[in-house]
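Review session, final week

We close the course with one last complete record, chosen because it touches almost every idea we covered. It is Acetyltransferase, a protein from Arthrobacter alpinus with 194 residues. Go through it on your own first, then we will talk.
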Amino acid sequence: MATIDGLDALLTALNAGESIPGGSPHHAAMHAASQESLRITAEINGQYHSPDEVRSLMSELTGSLVPESFTLFPPFSADFGKNIRFGENVFLNSGCRFQDQGGIDIGAGSLIGHNAVITTLNHDMLPSRRADMHPARVVIGEGVWFGANVTVLPGVSIGDGAVVGAGAVVTKDVPAGAVVVGVPAKQVGTVPEG
């Protein structure tokens, strides 16, 4: 794994929710990490790998050991890679795309459906500052299930056991045990107990 100048300081700033000005040293470190992420995800997606090899590559991508119970069906993309954390028994189906600079935490036993998009950055609204980025962590609880083509916006938390229906765009927090669908996602029920 290549050493990325300023990565630790960048992660500290991102995890504190600090804005990253365009053209700053943090911005440069972010781009360097993105290049490493592109290299590793190209390796994941470019040929067949055993589940153990996939976990090894995902550990390299995230910079931390991915649990042995983690499963990924490629292809997968992350445009940063260093701010993703997986609990035990997490499953990512094919086509998932993570923008993880702001941080993505996925709790144990969660199932993330085909083509899920999880975003953690917003660009500044002012055209003169549009290159500035504002991070916001996404937290997905334990035992959460995403249908296919779910999109989660920056700063959202999804409670334990929740179900996010196919095609939903999650713009605000989802309570534990809720079933949400639609654009924007709205609660339509609760997960049965048992």
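Two points worth writing down before the exam:
Residues 133 and 144 are 28 Å apart (CA to CA).
DSSP finds three helices and 18 strands in the chain.
Good luck, everyone.
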